[in-house]
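Example 3.2
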Amino acid sequence: MTARPVPDLITAARPGGLGAFNVITLEHAEAIAAAAEAAKRPVLLQLSENTVHYHGALAPIALACLRIAADSTADIAVHLDHATSFELIRAAVELGIRSVMYDGSTLDYAENVSATADITRWCHDREVFVEAELGEVGGKDGAHAPGVRTDPDEAVEFVATTGVDALAVAVGSSHAMHTRTAELDNDLIARLAAKVPVPLVLHGSSGVPDAGLRAAVEHGMTKINIATRLNVLATEAIRTTFADGPTIVDPRKYLKPARAAIRSEVEHLLHVLAG
């Protein structure tokens, strides 16, 4: 099983943005792949460190995603999201994942630079694409404060020093938002895009409405990460299924509509990101 190179997916997505959707269950991966095929758009299947902890191991869900990507008619790659340890990154690379995010954003700047540079060198020796984060795309409160947003000059220095291939930046979005009310700083996105020589990544995109996502791509965002939005809609579908059939015990009866809800939303979002 071989993953498609992420730079190829970025190119295929242009002039729109590359949708990157987080996988928790097999149903997520199946739905995202089906949506990509229907929309005829490239996608990333993302596996976060939290999802690895949920499953208890990386290999089963990672190998399933790699097989789904390899068998799909769409352009799909698998990406390790928000890894905070070299051990997890090494495990992912050994399984065949060729795109990783090292998240050193909780470290001070010097420590983040040092750790990211070391991991990037190791990954590049193995032809692995590396994303890092500068700024704080944290919870709903902190990430909206101007002080935690990414400084363009610091971002240029960070990329030059670490050699990363993509940079996640803090521009007003927040992780785990259940409502789509985030307002992005498009002027900051444009200034970052004009200065930073690698693709920019928007985390916390579930809280950004469709118009905001389109504007983010137009102003220079390349990779758009979405997770919570899919889980919200999948859970709504499951609740509706149980409300209509309170005696249901077969997981296929409620996971099937959840998978359908994920597929429908991913297909919609891929069209939004296409511009």
